[in-house]
Amino acid sequence: MANTEKLGAKKNAENEVNETFVSKSIEFYKKYENVIYGVLIAIIVIIGGIFALNKFYITPRNEKASAMIAKPIAMFSRGDSLSLVSALEGTEEDDGFLTIISDYKMTRTANTAKYYAGLCYLYQGNKEEALDYLKQFKKKEDVLWYAAQALIGDLYDEQGDETEAINYYKKAVKGEDPYFTPISLFKLGQMYERSENWKEALKCYQTIEKDFYDQYTTMGVDRYLERATLNAAK
Q1: Beta-carbon contacts of residue 106 (< 8 Å; ≥ 6 apart)
Q2: Residue 92, Cβ neighbours under 10 Å: how many?
Q3: Hey, what CATH class is 142-234 in?
Q4: How confident is the model at residue 127 (pLDDT cuts 50, 70, 90)?
Q5: Which residues in 28-56 are b (16+ Cβ under 10 Å) and which e?
Q6: Where exactly are the structural domains of the chain?
Q7: How far, in Å, CA of 193 to CA of 225, rounded?
Q8: Is residue 219 helix, strand or coil?
């Protein structure tokens, strides 16, 4: 009997709490009804604006930029110094990567152009500009993005900034490209060796052996794995 009374009292208390919560919610809604409607309308307007911007502005401009970037990529592929300048800065007939970046902002193609601009500067020996454009390259195209992270790691390594080099190599090795990923893993392993972090170096070489055996054999990673194994065991 006592237990029944306790349960009844507890249930009544819970009902009172629920009723109080509901009444306060209704009161709050009535008090701020206009504000709530205003916020909801603002959210709808923002979402609609983003949709319209993407459909009627960004997408058409990206299609136009996509057609334009073919020429500078072809010039870049030639590899000679004059072609690199033309690819980067453009010619009288065709725009280069820099123009596409500045004139077609927010498009996927402009993002791709930043990657190629970084490569152009790198091959010209302008490593500061190369680093700047490669770091601006956003992760929208996975293979190129992971390759860019490895290149950034290389540039920081040349500057003697081992911490940043390791950070970017760590990003690069998360890709699954059969060519770039094992090379980045090897570079990361070499960075760990310099600081005598043999256990981490060993993990890098073991991953190459396990997941990229063809490259493991071609690159001769076995001797590095053996050395890391010996030192990690000490």
Answers
A1: 58
A2: 4
A3: mainly alpha
A4: very high
A5: eeeeeeeeeeeeeeeeeeeeeeeeeeeee
A6: 18-138, 142-234
A7: 11
A8: coil
pLDDT of residue 106: 84
- Distance between CA atoms of 96 and 85, rounded to whole angstroms? 9
Q: What is the mean pLDDT of residues 27-34?
A: 56
Whole-model pTM over 0.90: no
Task: Give the Cα separation of 190 and 201 in Å (integer).
Answer: 7
Q: How confident is the model at residue 189 (pLDDT cuts 50, 70, 90)?
A: very high
**DSSP 8-state secondary structure symbol assigned to residue 178:** T
- In the chain, the amino acid numbered 226 is E
Can you spell out the DSSP letters for 76-90?
HHH-SHHHHHHHHH-
Q: How many CB atoms lie within 10 A of CB 174?
A: 12
Helix 180-194 vs helix 162-172: crossing angle, to nearest 10: 150
Q: Which of 53-57, 120-124, 129-133 has the lowest mean pLDDT?
A: 53-57
Q: Are the C-beta atoms of 89 and 96 separated by less than 8 Å?
A: yes
| Residues 176, 210: Cα–Cα separation, whole Å | 13
Of 135, 68, 141, 136, which is closest to residue 100 (Cα–Cα)?
68
List pLDDT tens digits, range 65-95: 788 999 999 999 999 999 999 999 999 999 9
Which 8-state DSSP code applies to residue 54? I
Angstrom distance (rounded) from CA 103 to CA 137: 16
Lowest-confidence segment of 31-35, 97-101, 123-127, 180-184 by average pLDDT: 31-35
Q: Tell me how far apart the alpha carbons of residues 177 and 23 are, in angstroms, rounded to a whole number.
A: 59
